[in-house]
Amino acid sequence: MKVRSRHNSREERQKRIVRVFFIALGFILIGLLIPYVITAVTRAVMYPIEATQLWFHESQARLPMYLRGQTELINRITDLESKLAAAESTDVTQQRLYTENQSLRQLLSMDQHDRIGAAVIARPNQLPYDLLEIDRGANDGIKVGAPVYIGADNVVGVVSQIAPHYSFVELFTTPGFTATTYISGANVIATLEGYGGGSARVRVPQGIPLKEGDLVHVPSIDPGVFGRITYIENHPSQPDQYGYITLEKPIASISYVAVGRESLVPAKPDVIEERIARIIKESLNVDTGKLHLASSTTVIASTTATTTIQ
Amino acid sequence: MRQALNIFIFLLIAFLTVQNHLFMAALLVLIFTYRVGALFLIPLAFCIDGFFGAFYHVPLFSIVVSVWYLISELIRPILILRSKSYGEAS
User: Fold this and answer.
1) Is B55 in Cβ contact with A31 (below 8 Å)?
2) What is A115-303's CATH number, 3.40.50.300, 3.90.700.10, 3.50.30.10, 2.40.10.340?
3) From start to end of chain A, where are the E strands?
4) What global pTM score does this model have?
5) Chain A residues inside the 8 Å CB shell of B53
6) What is the pLDDT of residues B35-82, one digit of tens each?
7) Residues A304, A4: Cα–Cα separation, whole Å
8) B66 CB near a chain A CB, below 8 Å?
């Protein structure tokens, strides 16, 4: 009997739920049939809620003003943060463009030389070591043998092969590559040999004061500084000593190069001598202000010495 | 106290829905359904739909709440029975 009554109450409950559901659906249908009546009635019913909302949005009382102010401040902070992020990204973009522009201007040394700017599109390991591929070719005026620069006067190689739209650059560090160079510190002419792996070396006889940091010029290219001696290999028992030169920039970091308009022509000895003389002359120039100071110090020292003796 | 809290939750649901804070309103609907049931939410949904003039198009709140009533009334007894049995066990 108890089981039956529980069963009955469950059924009744389910019936009630379904009845309520259908009544709700019926009301929805009525609402759809006479929306203006329902809207008017519900507007009246919802008036307290509407008034509360109005109070919350427009009242000058302390609580809603505080809550509104807090919301407005949060929105303002979010807005300013997004603006700041946008401004920072713009600043970074401007800075990047400025740096890129400066480096490109320097690379092309626009005010002094006429060169062709080119982007490096392949480098080792995509290519054999000491070889670069650039995105300018014969159609852009590139010639075989043209010097390739990575700075205003920092020459790193020559164009070895050209196609209409691209070219290959053979670096001075390619094994088997030789060039006559002038080492400015030691004041000696030596043969540069490509050593491979991004380095080259100069061989000079023992006794010549070769130093790390000495500039290595390529006098057949004007201007043409290849780099600095970074390491010296000197065994007293050997007849020669070697100075090793690496590129100023790692090969992986070379993204833009400038190519000279004219290809290298064998320079006459007198022209090369003239350039070497110019380099020596430039290296002899010292800051005259410092020189003057040194001479006056000497005078003072000598005067003091004379006084002491007297 | 319990009744007062239920009324407060009910009014808060109405206010938040009108304010368009639907996520918070949905959370309160869950709580209210568990505590009281979804039956009282049907007239509220009617009023909100009427307030927004939804009967001129589709009374979405009313339909959703009616379906929610159907589902919740089927689920609620199971949940209540479970919570009771856990209470007895502990």
Assistant:
1) yes
2) 2.40.10.340
3) 115-122, 131-134, 147-149, 155-162, 167-171, 178-183, 188-196, 199-205, 215-217, 225-234, 240-246, 256-260
4) 0.45
5) 35, 39
6) 888 889 999 999 999 988 888 888 899 999 999 998 888 877 776 666
7) 131
8) yes
Question: Which of chain A's residues have a Cβ under 8 Å away from the Cβ of B55?
Answer: 31-32, 35, 38-39
Q: Are B59 and A28 in contact (CB under 8 A)?
A: yes
How close B1 comes to chain A (CA, Å)?
Answer: 22
Separation CA B84–CA B78 (nearest Å): 10
CA–CA separation, A230 vs A243, rounded Å? Answer: 7
B 25-54: CB under 8 A from A = 39, 42, 46-51, 53
Interchain pair B46, A27: CB under 8 A: yes
The model's pLDDT over A113-166, given as tens digits with 9 standing for 90+, comes to 678 888 899 888 888 888 899 999 989 889 888 889 887 788 889 898 899 999
The two tokens of residue A224 are 């043409």
CA A164/CA B62 separation, integer angstroms = 73
**Cα A64 to Cα A55: distance, rounded to the nearest angstrom:** 7
Best of B13, B57, B66 to mutate (most A CBs within 10 Å, chain A): B66
